[in-house]
Every structure is written in structure tokens, then in C-alpha cells.
Amino acid sequence: MQPRSARITGWGMYAPEGVLTNEDLARLVDTSDEWIFTRTGIRERRVAAPHETAATMGAIAAKRAIATAGLEADDIDMILLATCTPDYWLPSTAAFVKEAIGNRRAAAMDVSAACSGFVYGFATADAMVRSGMYRHVLVIGSELLTRFLDFTDRSTCILFGDGAGAVVLSASDEPGGGMLGAELTTDPEGAYFIWMPSGGSASPPSAQTVSRGEHYIRMEGRETYRYATKTLASTAVTAIERAGLTQDDIALFVPHQANLRIIEFVARSMGIDMGRVYVNVERYGNTSAASVPIALAEAVDSGRVQIGDNIVFVAFGAGFTSGAAVVEWTADPANGVRARAVVPTASVHLPADWRAAAPVPPELADILARRNGSALAEPEVPGSSQRGAPEPAEPVRAASGSVPPKVTA
């Protein structure tokens, strides 16, 4: 039986404890706090701890969204995880999130649309729920971008941070509410303006690709800026029109938090006062697919969203992709307090005969260790070893030959 509407019932976010400031970056590249802030609006960004992954961060945000919705983990029928920084190329990171939240029955898959991924996932979830296929769909954006940055490249390393956000989209027998209109676009002409040259089947990993730095994110800033300022506006306008609304009907815009200059330019071009735009890029930087759900969760919990409000979230990203959704908010914002009871930990099992290299770039590990002392030193986590260290002579086995070890965030 098809429901009468599909509504957001839960929301949650997770930001790692590690903070990387502009002053920290000035020790690594030729830059300054003033230079970064005036060009991007960013003051700091979060850095995941060595034991954290896209899966464990996404799972914590997911647990909070499930709690806010007043559901149990096994109430979730489908898990959609948007990321461009998966734990592994296969299996899906969504599969590990399923394990980490304690769900035993959901289907799970990743969504790859870079910074637009959460909006793409949300539109997919809406279709699944409205069709009657699933009753509760968990949509997550989780990114661990600091492990894919060249910290000698000032054009990229200043922009990105780590984090995760999530929503639960649920079937309702009541009419109205939920997504009123959407727009998704892809323009392959911009495919190589934001990309990672190697690691895929076109250029598999090799000693040469590593030595050439081809496993780091590369970006053409000017072309990306031009595309973003044009497409964010046009995509949002189209979604609003499809919803049968005007811009004056929108209580709050939640844009992708890539750059404050981009957000302000788009607001001016659409004639929107910045008082109706939620911005947190100063504290988190660009968290790609996690950007919109983090901002959405913060906006709701800070009282910026009320029942009956029409809100727009809009994003752009590599591909080039863009996506916008117009949503009538129906959930009680006070339900956000339920997330406070969620302990911010998550764990997934690891293979018994494999060790990962130390994941945190050494430049960041040094900075964070100097600031925090032993608290951010490399922990003894089963299944991990120091970056570049030789492989152990004997494989690491699970205790008593039973369940493989787990990594916990």
C-alpha cells in the first residue's frame, strides 16, 4: 500500500573531535588565517581520529537520526550512504553502517554523486518510500576527506574537513509534507575540474600513480566557482518551481557549505537575504556529501526550522552534479533532544588476516599530537598498523579464532 506522503522524521550529525585551524595549515603551506578566511569563510575544519572511518562516523549520525525519529535500528528498511571517501572500493560502506547501527534486516548501498550525493540519496529515498517499497529509509552523508588531500597544495588542503549527517525518511498516512519538488543535474563537461586521477579502473593504483600524487583530490578552483554560482541558483529555482512555490515561500535555504563567497553570491543572485540562509562553513569547511545533512541537523536543533516551514537544501559537486529538494517540515524540532542519549561510538568488524596502514596523514598527526598530547596519538586498534610499516610476518588473527576484531569510533 502506497503512503500518502514521505516525511523527514529523524535527523542527526557527527563531527570528529579533532580540529584543524587555519593557523595550523599556515605551518604546512604558504597561507594565513586571513588569506583563507577572506577567500572561503572557513576558520577551521574537523579531522577524524585514526580509528574513525566513513562508516563509523556515518553510523553515529545514523544512530542519532534513528533516535530522533523515535525508532529502533531494525525499523530501518533501507540504508543509502552518500560518500566519495568510502572505507573500501568494495564492499559498500553502507554495509558496514548497517552492522554498526545493529540493523539485521535493511538493504544497504552507497550513492556516488560527490558533494551532491546526499540530495541524490534523499530524492532516491523519497521515491522508494512514496512507491510503498519501503517504510523507513535512512539517508546518510559521510566523508573523510582529510585522508585524500595533498598538504602541499594550498588550493585544496584548506577547503575540506571530515564529518557525517543523516536523516530518516518515513512513510505517513497523512497527506502533505515531505518533499514538494526536486531537481537533479549532471554535466560531464566539468568532470575533470574536481577529480582524483588514479585509483579507479582507468588508472589503477601503482607505484607510479602514488609517486605522482594522483590519489589526492585535484580541483580547478575558478571553473568550479563559476559553475557553482550558476548552478546552485538555477537548480534551487527549478526545484522551487516544481514545488509550485515562489522564493518568498521558503523559510530557510540550506546550501552545500563549500565556500562562503559562493553562498553569498548565490543568495544575492536569487534576491535572498542571508538571514534566510543557514551557514556553518566557518566551523567545518567543505564536508562534501556530509555538508547538507550536517547543516540541516544543526539548523533544526538551533531553532531555525519550525513545523510547516518550507526549506530548500541544495548542493553541487564533482561530475559536475547538482541537486536541490524543497521540503515541507513536519517533525517536531524538540525531538532532537532524543539524540543526546546516543553514545558517540560505533564499531565494525575487520578481516582477521589484514592490517591497515596508519590512516591519518603524518602532517596532521604531528599537528594534532602537539596540541593534544597523547590523547590523539595513534591508538592500538586491531587491524591497523603504522603508515608505511612493513607487513607483519604472521597474519593477525581474531581472538580464539572466533569473531574478527572490531574497530571502534
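[next item in queue]
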Amino acid sequence: MVGRRRRRAGDHLSRSDELRGLALAGIGVALFSFSLPATKLAVEGLDPWFVSFGRAAAAAVLSVVVLRATGARRPTRAEWRGLGVVAFGIVVGFPALTSLALRHETSAHGAVVIALLPAGTAVWAVSRAGERPSARFWAAALAGLAAVLAFIFADGVGKAGVSDAELLVATVICSLGYAEGGALSRELGGPQTVCWALVLSAPLTFAVALATAPYHASVGTNAWLGFAYVSTVSMFVGFFFWYAGLARGGVAKAGQIQLLQPLLTLVLAGLVLGEHVSPFTLVCAVAVLASVAGTQRARVARVSAGGRPGVDVGDPTG
């Protein structure tokens, strides 16, 4: 299975492992890049609560098939706790908040706001691993936040104010789910991690999906196509590659690949949805990407089991 490899957090990565991880993460990012445009298509014809929970319910059915077909072992008690964090971040929190936000915002706008995902993932990753980011790391992360806030206020508040808050909270929650899932994938494997998280969430996702399903409403083809994409690709197949990449290449290192996602989303939003992407939007997106690149290059000191600073990871000038 993709990404099934046991490795402790402190193990050194070989160059071949790192390259495989970056390649797998790259496939995941390419698949995720259409998530916001597909969600936008879906919420134009479907209830946003059905879109966010129905996609997870559909993916949970596929997860049961995969888990039974692969004979996956049951997670340990500690792993179930981690899976709860993953489910909160990627199964419930992020889909629900982005679906609500995209009722009033374009997917191009959303792509810029959630461009902080790689920085957020790195923050959660170093936090979980007991690492100490340098001042340069935090300065770059704050610069990215400033760029996003500048974009939000320049683009106008009002009805967009609530949507932007939803997108920012979604970014924080999703980055936590990414970091936790990447760590769990070292033991469970990428596909198994997302499948168990979806199964764990199934009672909630099925209940909400059934309560908000469009039983008698007329729904357009485009809305159903968008829903089908986020259910099978964004919520399921994409995570096979993404978590496998994080497990093999390292959460912070492989997270660099996600720098490509906002720009890919902007291109797809323009081509598929015909959304206008202004020069200012592109400038803000590039500014955020630059700040996130800074966090990836900054020095991070790892703390040993005894609590002493270990080797530094990242740019030695950081």
C-alpha cells in the first residue's frame, strides 16, 4: 500500500525516501488543488452542510471497502486518540468551514486565505515533535499572516468578514489534521490513516448528511459533479498520497510542496469557473508563498528525549 512504512520521528531520512515522499505529496497537492473550485460548484446547488458531511459519509463507505480488502489492523488506543484529532481537522472542521465560506466567496479568494496551510502544518509539526523554531521561522510565519490579513481587508469586509474568519479557522484546524495524520501514517500507513479517521467520524457524518440531503430538490449536474470530486478525490484518494508523502518525506519538508496549491487553485478557478483573478490577488498569493518558503528554510532545533537541544534542521543561516 502507498506509504506503508514504519519509521520513528527521530530517524534520519535517506535521499531516496525524501524524493519519494516529495513525489507522493506532489500528487496529493495536484489532486487537492481543485478542491475549492469543486466545493464552490457543489454549494451553488446543494446545502453546504450536506456537502461537507455528505462527502465524508461517502468516503467512509469507500474506506470500509479499502480497510477490509487490505486486512488493515485496528489502531491502538493511542492511535485512536490521534485519529480523533485527524477527524476533527480534515473530516469535519475544514470541509464544514470552507463549504460555509464559499457560499459568499470565490474559490480564488479562498485559495489565498488558506495559503497559510503549509506554515500552519509546520508549526503543528514542530510543536508535536518538541522542536524549537528560530526567530526567523516565526518572523516568516507572521509575515504570511500579515499578507493574508492585508488581502482580506483590501478585498473588503462586511459579508466577507465572516467568510474570511471561517477560512482562517479552517486553515488552523486543517493544518493540525495534516500534522497529526502525517505522524500517524508512519505507523498506520497513509491510506489506513485517512480511512480509519473517516470510519471514526461516520456516525456524525451520516447523521448530518441524511438530515440535510436534497430529497426533493432539483440539483444541477455541475453541483453533483463538484460533490463527486470532493467525496472521492479531495476527501479520499488525495489523502492516500498526501499522508504517504508526509510520512516518507517528513511533515515539514514535504509540506513545501503545498506551496504550489494556491497558484494551481487560482489557475483552475479561472479556467473552470471563469472567476476573475486580479493582479492584486496574485501578488498576495506570491507574498504568502514567499513567507511560507521562509518558514521552511528557517532553522529548527530538535529537542532530544532528555530535553537537551539536538541538531538543527533547516538553513544554517536561519
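[queue empty]
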